[in-house]
Design brief:
disordered N terminus, Non-ribosomal Peptide Synthetase Peptidyl Carrier Protein, Chain A, mainly alpha
């Protein structure tokens, strides 16, 4: 199954306001330490990301598109936010990805 199909299936399976029983969603800003933890979990390890890594390509940091897809799924579930597939594909660095996630969180909070 390709990345686009997997994301479409996940999006279709979850309605906009559907929440698993007893699940509280995380509220607030998504930061570099949270991204690092999710990347480590998705990739089975890795280096700590620091401020110097913000503009380094994920591929150069050792994270492939599958790791980012897994991280995106966790963020969408835990933060109750939908990230546009094209925007996720264009986010090639931690800074771009953090800006994308925090922009989506800010948009959700404004609603």
């Amino acid at each position: 199954m390709d990345t686009a199909t997997a994301r479409e299936n996940r999006t279709e399976a979850r309605t906009e306001n559907e929440k698993p029983p007893g699940k509280e969603y995380i509220v607030g800003r998504f930061d570099l330490s949270a991204l690092t933890a999710l990347l480590h979990e998705a990739a089975g390890g890795g280096n700590e990301l620091g401020e110097d890594d913000l503009d380094t390509l994920f591929l150069d940091l050792g994270y492939d598109s599958l790791a980012l897809l897994q991280v995106t799924g966790v963020i969408e579930r835990d933060y109750d936010v939908t990230l546009e597939e094209e925007a996720v594909d264009e986010a090639e660095t931690p800074r771009q990805f953090l800006d994308l996630v925090n922009g989506a969180l800010a948009g959700r909070a404004a609603v």
